[in-house]
Write a structure and sequence with these properties.
disordered N terminus; about 5% helix; about 750 residues; seven-stranded mixed sheet; mainly beta; 45 strands; globular
């Protein structure tokens, strides 16, 4: 029976909601459909003829709804947006989801150990009213930002530059707006975010601490979608525009409103970012200098073009630009000098082409070429010393990736590939009094080959992935071999055992030369390894975990150890006796991540706790003895809950962690050397950090095709004054003063968004 005859028999019928038809088919054929609610939302069809077999009924619905119906086995069928028929076998073979609704809706854990966040399905988290990508991942055990900035995310004791951040496969060197308080990546068109803390696939180089892999939609939906919204920091919009059956364009844009609307949220962000900077004059220590006429804004624009050349060939083009810009005037408070304009601009531009070829239902290849550019530049006028300083940190990264995936059978999948990258990093400084010009440029070219195998047992109880990556750095004529392993085994219906291990290396890192570099706002600059005073960073880590999951109760515990060597003292941001010392060292972090999560029909609550010990060892610092890492936070705990009823979602959470280390000055100072003398490094602790957050969202149905949402949140509900950093300096009288950096105070936010 062909499709045309089927349609002829159904023309006299009225269309039914697809959900109702699926229920009828489930009862008739004793099967189960799996799908996202939004996949079938608004879909209707004629009911398949009663005489049709299951396969014929599915083919009929496929033609009626423009959806794909993929049979996993005789009883399970997955419904998804239309995909290439040659790719249907490969999309079936995704890693198994072992934990769903991990903490909140839209977060799940895969069998290979990574955590997946689907932004379209994202529920709600305390303090967040939108799925801010880099804020959301901090809800996961083992991930924290010791200074509340998304541009300083610490994964199991690592620094932020040790995270590999990818946007559609393109490496990003800038991750934050508002100099670190807002994620630089618009979540509206980001479909998936995958976070790997260990056992990473060999497809990924760099990132000795973690991989944060963001993916936009890569399939043609053939449905128009758009939306717009605003909150007290920015406004944004997005659209998915089908051009024809073979082409689609996705566009999103976001811009801050902070340069023409003053809000309480902006006021708190302003105080947080600009404290202890040139703008606030703390660095100069001179109250006779005033700063005014500040203008700050940020924006990001992303575009993706999708073109299916044939059913076996796909072409994709990506473009993204991220920008932060700040200007302000400074002059003497007695107005005897003309105002001088300081400026800071931070920009990351990325573009990439990808070609995907389906050779058969089992073999596919991808080829990607991308270019990413990062530029941080500042002009700083020092009125007291009559100086003008220009600084510029620039990164150019060109990469070529070729990958092949072969599905041997239902249980075994093989990956292999090659990657070439050329990274060029330059640092320039120009001082006018006295005249001083410095320009340093480094280039590294790296060739990488890799291969790995993924195995899933017939009963789905065991998953294993083992791979090997080899990097060759031309300049050093050195090979770096990196085995990776991820194993997950289901002991019974309730317990799952997991083992992860990996070796990694990276050649890019961030350092701080002076605390007032780049106006003291974004102090870090990117540099390349030179195999001398800046070595290649290498890591080795392993973890073993056990997870209990039954009746919507999850209890998880994971023990880990990580060794990272080749770090420099300048990359660690010392503000004690080691601030101006350059040395090469290592750190070791070991600890346990624990989570208990109980879910009910409309309520989810969790308690997470992490314990870790993170110690440095430098040959020439502290007489070669180990001492606590600058970001050694031994205890971290979160207690939170979310509640959803009809269209209302609520979230409340409490975050607590022990204080990070600090170094105190000696009570008795030797004033002859004009330097502060300190006690044992990192031997004391800041006070404990404590923060309570709350948020709420409400969904509205405006028309059949238009939805809206209203959100409200309060960060630091109790207005706790958390000191997140303390250091010491000498004033003009030679007295030691204490400088404290304080976290965000009580910070409200509201949002309104429409989608159609």
């Amino acid at each position: 029976m062909n499709i045309s005859s089927i349609c002829a028999q159904t023309n006299s019928k009225n269309k039914l909601p697809l959900a109702k038809i699926l229920t009828q088919l489930e009862a008739k054929f004793n099967i189960n459909f799996t799908y996202l609610d939004q996949t079938i939302e608004g879909k209707s069809a004629f009911a398949p003829h009663e005489d049709l077999t299951l396969e014929e009924a599915l083919n009929f619905l496929k033609s009626e709804t423009n959806l794909d119906f993929i049979m996993l086995d005789n009883a399970r069928i997955v419904i998804s947006k239309r995909i290439n028929p040659f790719s249907s076998f490969i999309t079936q073979k995704l890693e198994e989801v072992v934990i769903t609704n991990f903490l909140t809706k839209g977060i799940s854990k895969k069998s290979d150990g990574k955590v997946n966040i689907k932004t379209e399905d994202f529920g709600i988290l305390p303090g967040l009213i939108e799925p801010d990508i880099l804020q959301s991942i901090q809800a996961l055990p083992g991930i924290i930002s010791v200074d509340e900035r998304v541009s300083n995310i610490n994964v199991r004791g690592g620094t932020h530059d040790q995270n590999l951040i990818l946007w559609d496969g393109i490496k990003m060197y800038q991750s934050g707006h508002f100099f670190g308080l807002v994620s630089a990546f618009n979540p509206n068109l980001t479909k998936d975010v995958n976070v790997s803390k260990n056992g990473t696939s060999v497809k990924f180089g760099d990132g000795v601490s973690s991989v944060i892999d963001m993916q936009q939609s890569n399939s043609l939906d053939q449905d128009f979608k758009a939306g717009a919204g605003f909150n007290l920091i920015h406004a944004d919009g997005f659209a998915k525009l089908p051009l024809d059956e073979k082409a689609e364009i996705q566009v999103s844009a976001r811009r801050s409103v902070t340069d023409f609307i003053f809000t309480p949220t902006y006021d708190q962000y302003l105080q947080r970012v600009f404290q202890d900077t040139d703008f606030s004059n703390t660095q100069q220590g001179n109250s006779e200098i005033t700063s005014n006429n500040e203008r700050f804004y940020f924006y990001d624009i992303s575009t993706k073009f999708l073109y299916d050349i044939t059913e076996q060939d796909q072409f994709r083009f990506n473009f993204l630009t991220i920008n932060n810009s700040l200007t302000y005037d400074q002059q003497s408070s007695d107005n005897t000098s003309n105002p001088l304009r300081n400026s800071l601009e931070q920009n990351n531009l990325a573009a990439g082409f990808e070609y995907l070829k389906y050779w058969s239902s089992k073999l596919t290849t991808t080829a990607q070429v991308y270019y990413t550019n990062y530029d941080l530049k500042a002009t700083n006028f020092d009125i007291v010393n009559n100086q003008r300083l220009n600084q510029d940190n620039k990164v150019n990264d060109i990469s070529v990736k070729i990958n092949a995936t072969n599905h041997i059978d239902n249980h075994l999948k093989l990956h292999g590939g090659y990657q070439f990258s050329e990274v060029i990093i330059s640092n320039a400084e120009d001082l006018d009094n006295p005249n001083f010009v410095s320009f340093i440029k480094e280039v590294l070219r790296t060739h990488s080959i890799y291969g790995e195998a993924e195995f899933t047992s017939a009963n789905k109880n065991t998953y294993a992935r083992i791979g090997l990556r080899t990097n060759y750095i031309e300049k050093f004529s050195e090979f770096f071999t990196e085995p990776r392993l991820s194993v997950s085994h289901k002991l019974n219906n309730d317990f799952r055992l997991e083992f992860l291990a990996e070796l990694k290396s990276q050649t890019t890192s961030q350092i701080i030369d002076l605390q007032n570099d780049f106006l003291g706002i974004e102090k870090r600059r990117w540099i390349l390894s030179n195999d001398e005073d800046i070595p290649v960073i290498k890591s080795a880590q392993g973890a073993i975990g056990i997870h209990y999951n039954k009746n919507k109760l999850l209890i998880s515990a994971e023990a880990f150890i990580k060794n990272v060597e080749g770090i420099t003292a300048r990359s660690q941001g010392f503000q004690n006796q080691f601030q101006f010392v350059n040395d090469i060292g290592k750190y070791q972090v070991k600890g346990v991540d624990f989570l208990i999560n109980k879910q009910f029909d409309s309520f989810s609550t969790w308690l997470s706790y992490s314990f870790s010990q993170n110690d440095y060892t430098f040959d020439n610092l502290n007489e070669g003895n180990s001492f606590p890492n600058n970001i050694d936070v031994k205890h971290t705990a979160t207690f939170a809950g979310t509640y959803a009823i009809n269209d209302l979602k609520l979230a409340l959470g409490v975050n607590w962690h022990s204080g990070k280390p600090q170094t105190l000055p000696l009570q008795t100072q030797d004033n002859t050397n004009n330097q502060i003398e300190y006690t044992t490094p990192n031997n004391e602790r800041l006070d404990n950090y404590f923060r309570t957050d709350i948020s709420a969202t409400y969904q509205l149905k405006l028309t059949n095709k238009m939805d809206a949402s209203i959100g409200a949140s309060i960060w630091n509900l109790l207005d706790r004054q958390n000191v997140i950093n303390t250091y010491y300096a000498e004033n003009s009288n030679g007295d030691i003063i204490t400088i404290e950096n304080v976290s965000l105070g009580i910070t409200p936010n509201i949002s309104f968004r429409v989608r159609f």
